[in-house]
Amino acid sequence: MATTMITTLDRSSRAAARGLSDISIRNLFIIPTVLFLIVFNIFPLIYSLGYSFTDFRASTNAPANFVGLQNYRDLLNDPFVWNNFAITAKYVIVSVAGQLFVGFGVAMLLNRDIPLKGLLTTLLLLPMMLSMAVVGLFWKLLYDPSWGVINYFLGLGNFEWLADPKMALYAVALTDIWMWSPFVMLLSLAGLSAVPKHLYEAAAIDRAGPFYTFFRITLPLVAPILMIAVIFRTMEAFKTFDLAYILTSQPTAELISIRLYKMAFQEWQTGRSCALAYIVLIMVLAITNIYVKYLNKVKER
Amino acid sequence: MAAVRTSSEIGLNRVAIVAVLVVTIIFLAPIYWIASTAFKPRNLATTIPPTVVFQPEISPFVKLFTKRSQMRSPPTPEEYAAAPWWERVVFDGGEKIVRDGKGQVQWSGYPSRFLNSLIIAITSTVLAVGMGTFTAYGFSRFKVKGEADLLFFILSTRMLPPVVVAIPMFLMYRAVGLNDSHIGLIILYTAFNLSFSVWLMKGFMDEIPKEYEEAALVDGYTRMEAFFKIVLPEAATGIAATAVFCFITAWNEYAFALIMTNRRAQTAPPFIPSQVGSGLPDWTVIAAGTFLFLLPVAIFTFLLRNHLLRGMSFGAIRK
C-alpha cells in the first residue's frame, strides 16, 4: 500500500514536472482573455473619455480643442436629449412589461402535460434567434397601411403603425415583444419546473383556490428567475438600436442609441457624442446595480 | 397533480392546449409570411386580400443573386429560347441580367455579403468559444485572486450599448487601418461574445467532476493532457451550446457592421435593408434574401434544440 502510494505520487509529480505547473496553466488560460477584453473594451472607453472633453470632429482634420466639461453641460441642458431618454424609458417599460406578461403567460400554459410540448417550445423560440435588423425590415411590410397583413387580419383598414408619431414607438415595442417574449417564456419555464410538486399537492389537499395557489406558491418561487429575465431584457431594451432604426424614422421613436448614432456618424460631433456615450454608460451601470441589489433581496426571501 | 384529476381540470387542460396552439401560430405567422413571400411572383407579394395559395416560384432567388436592368425592348423569340431557364425568369419580369464585356453574368452584392457574414461569424465564434473554454476552466479549477470581481468585469463588458463602444472603436480602427476589414469585425465580435462564452462555459465546467482529471493526473497525465483528453470531451455539449449562441449573436449583429464596414467586409444585416431604397421595393427579392439569411439559424435552432434549452436555462440560472 505504502509503496504504491509512493510510486503514484512519484509518477504524478514527474508528470507535473514534465508539463507546466498549475499556476502557469492558470495564467496561460486566464490572462489572454482578460488582456483581450481590456484592450478592446476598457481601452476604447478611456480613449473616448479623453475625446468627451474636446470639440473633436472625426469628419475634419482639425485638431481637437480641450473644452472641459462644456459637452456634458450642453447635453444635460439639452431638452431634446432628455426627450430621447424619456422615449427610451417609455419604450423599455412598454416592451419589458409586454414580454413579461406574454412570456410568463405562455409559460404558465405550457407548464402542464401537453402533447408535442418540446416541439412547440422550440418553435416558439425561433423569433429570438433571428436578426432584429432583417426581421425588422420585414415587419415594415407587415405593418404597411395599404397592403400589410396585420391590418388585414385585424380589420384595421388603413391604420398607420409606423408613420403615426403617436403609434410608431408602440409598433416598435410590439415587434420587440414578439421577438423577446420567448426568452421570458424560456426562463419562466425553467423556474416553473423547479417548483416542488408537493407544494401543489398540499395546496390541493387544503382546498386552496387557483388564485391562492398562484399568488402564494407559484409567483413567489418563480420571482427570482422572473427578476433575472427583467434585468436582461431591460438592459437589452435600453440598448435597442437596430429594430427602431430600421422600422421608423419618426422623431417620437428616436431612442437614445439612435440619437447617439446620429450625433456621432451623421452630424460628426465626435467629442460631444463621446460625452453622451458616457452619460448613457453611467445610466446603464446605475440601473444594473439597482436591479442586482433588488435581485439579491428577492433571492434572500 | 396527475393523481387526482377532476373533470374541470381536464377541461382546463384542453383550453390550455388550444391556447398554446393559437399562440404558436401567431408567433410563427410573420416567419411563415417571410418564407412564403420569398417564393411568390412579384405581383402577388402585396395583394389585399393577401395571397395564401399560389404557384411557388424560384424567380425571387434568381433576382436576388444577379444584377438586373430594365429592358428597352422585349427579347426576340430566338433570344428567349436560347436563354437558360434562370434568365427567362428574369425576362418574364421585364428585366434582363447585366453582363460584362465578355458576357459574364454580373452578380448582385448579396452572395459576397452572405459570404462575409459566414467568414466573420464562424471565425469569431471559434475564437470566442476557444478562449472562453480555456478561461472558464482556469476559473473553475484554480484559485484566482479576486475571482468574483474579475468575472463581474468580464460580464460587464457586455452591458455596454454597442453604439457607445462603436465611437472610439471607429476612431481606433481608422487610425490603424482596420476599417471595413474582416479582421476588424472578427475582433469586435470575439470581444463581444467572449464574456458570454466564459460565463456559460464556467457553468458547464463546474458540472464536470474534478475527480476525472485528478485520476488522470495520478495516471501520469500532465495537467494539459488531462485537460485536452479528459475535460474537453466531457464539455462537448456545453461547447456546442455556447458556440451556437455566439454564432447567432455574431450572425445577427447590425450596429457595428453598419458603422465599421461599407463595402469590402459588409455583412448581410446592414446590406439587406439598404436594398429597399426609395422606390417601390421588390418585396419578393427582399424576402428571398431574408429567408436565406434566417435559414442557417433556424436549422441550428432546430437541430440543437435540446442543448439550447439546457444551455439557456443554465447560463440564466447561474447569472
TrEMBL record, chain A:
The chain crosses the membrane at residues 28-47, 91-111, 118-139, 167-192, 213-232, 275-292. PANTHER family: GLUCOSE IMPORT SYSTEM PERMEASE PROTEIN GLCT (PTHR43759:SF1), TREHALOSE TRANSPORT SYSTEM PERMEASE PROTEIN SUGA (PTHR43759). Keywords: Membrane, Transmembrane, Transmembrane helix, Transport. GO terms for cellular component: plasma membrane. Belongs to the binding-protein-dependent transport system permease family. GO terms for biological process: transmembrane transport. Pfam families: BPD_transp_1. It is a multi-pass membrane protein. It is found in: Cell membrane. The keyword Transport applies. SUPFAM superfamilies: MalF N-terminal region-like (SSF160964), MetI-like (SSF161098). Residues 85-291 form the ABC transmembrane type-1 domain. This is Carbohydrate ABC transporter membrane protein 1 (CUT1 family). InterPro entries: MetI-like, MetI-like_sf, Sugar_ABC_transporter. The keyword Lyase does not apply.
UniProtKB/TrEMBL annotation, chain B:
Signal peptide: none annotated. It is found in: Cell membrane. The keyword DNA-binding does not apply. One of its GO terms (cellular component) is plasma membrane. The chain crosses the membrane at residues 12-35, 114-138, 150-171, 183-201, 230-251, 283-304. Its main location: membrane. Keywords: Cell membrane, Membrane, Transmembrane, Transmembrane helix, Transport. Belongs to the binding-protein-dependent transport system permease family. PANTHER family: ABC TRANSPORTER PERMEASE PROTEIN (PTHR32243:SF52), MALTOSE TRANSPORT SYSTEM PERMEASE-RELATED (PTHR32243). This is Carbohydrate ABC transporter membrane protein 2 (CUT1 family).
